[in-house]
Amino acid sequence: MPGQGSPLRVATLPTGLLECLGFAGVLFGWASLVFVFKIEHYFEELCEPHAGLMGNATGQDDCKAQDERFSLIFTLASFMNNFMTFPTGYIFDRFKTTVARLIAIFFYTSATLMIAFISADSAVLLFLAMPMLTVGGNLFLITNLQVGNLFGKHRSTIITLYNGAFDSSSAVFLIIKLLYEQGISLRASFIFLSVCSAWHVGRTFLLMPWGHIPYPLPPNYSYGPWPGLGSGTFCFHSLCSGNGTRGEKKETAEPEKLDLLSEEFQSPEEEAPGPGQQQEALSFWSHVLSQRFAWHLVWLSVIQLWHYLFIGTLNSLLTNLAVGDRALVSSYTNAFAVTQFFGVLCAPWNGLLMDRLKQKFQKEAQKTGSPASEVALLSAVPSLALTSLLCLGFALCASVRVLPLQYVTFILQVISRSFLYGGNAAFLTLVFPSEHFGKLLGLLMALSAIVSLLQFPIFTLIKGPLWGDLFYVNVTLVLFTLLTFVHPFLVYRECWRKEPSPATA
Fold first, then answer.
1. Where are the domains of the chain?
2. Tens digit of pLDDT for each residue in 217-237?
3. Are 161 and 26 in contact (CB under 8 A)?
4. Quick one: pLDDT at residue 286?
5. Are 287 and 432 in contact (CB under 8 A)?
6. How far apart are alpha carbons 70 and 118 in whole angstroms?
7. Transmembrane stretches, by residue range (predicted)?
């Protein structure tokens, strides 16, 4: 690898991947952890007395309050995972890598220690511990994404892998569950995760930069963790990067607007904007109030709600379908967690699909004289439609009350979820100016997080008035899933308009 600090770069890449894989997104292995919590009698006092005498909180009707409590914890933690994207990104922008990582380590270590020493009597502390675990893991991912800037043309691949590793880290709770079944206590497992903070601290001071990793890298860029080395200006939310050193004034080098997540998805609109586009790019709210943004928010929110609701209620669903057979519930919980691990392999395929289609459509545009911006945007349509189709298949399988069919549900769920977030970021880079990307992404994730709060009242509705009958809820959510196909259809229609379409169309 050319440039100075090559050994550090090579060491930073796999250790960052391991950090994301082992720590960043563990929350989404919640079903495995709930299984252990129930064995440890967490919130079992909420069960009916005759269920408690069995020493097992598996009765759906008898322990619906217990299931609701676990669902509420996951709802709060998953909400924080999305809603805190904007403020944690701001912390990274404002206070730079080292400070952001130290905050992440504090939250993560505090959470793992708290979970380690929580007992059934103090289980209410999970309401604090799980959101802290989520925020810390999110900051680990954010600070590691910039590592892709060190590897030039492989930048997008590395960033996609890191996001896939974030999804796959949910398998960590499966490992904890399996160790628990082999006699390793929950406390011992989480104390080990707490001790791993030494690993995070070591990477922070020995491998990661004090400031930010710029993109593109300046000539003779020296990568290192010490102040003055590897310095530069890098903005997570404004997606700006500069080649200056830490002491340079902003006036000496105009930051080049580049996309953190994938430069390869940059649209021709951004590469060569016209006068009207330049004027419109200055208006953030014109993009927020556009039809494209509104339908993309619907698309993301509905699909994400399905995933969060499924993960948060999986233990209750399996318990019901298995008629309280704990061994069978354990087996299916393990199968679900194993499929989640393969998210790191599924994630890059969506980006590869969009890259290939973009290249194909751009060649066609050169031959036919079609507007390059509209043809490039067309490359996002198959990704949006395929993600909706995968979610629809996942939703239909999840709605059928046949236990063996849930293996298919697990596979479709992990593929759909892997496609969702990569396609989300790629679409934003194609449609909106890069200087607004971070703000739009933060706002989009925050609004979708508010929608994700619906999972708790939905779960309460199922457990309460509907007496565990999922039929009406599933039919309603499937209909909303069909609504997500409107988004790729509108994008496709707009791509073939004869007249240029404004972003606020």
1. 6-495
2. 787 777 766 544 444 434 444
3. no
4. 85
5. yes
6. 15
7. 12-37, 70-92, 99-118, 124-147, 159-180, 293-311, 331-354, 375-401, 407-428, 440-459, 471-492
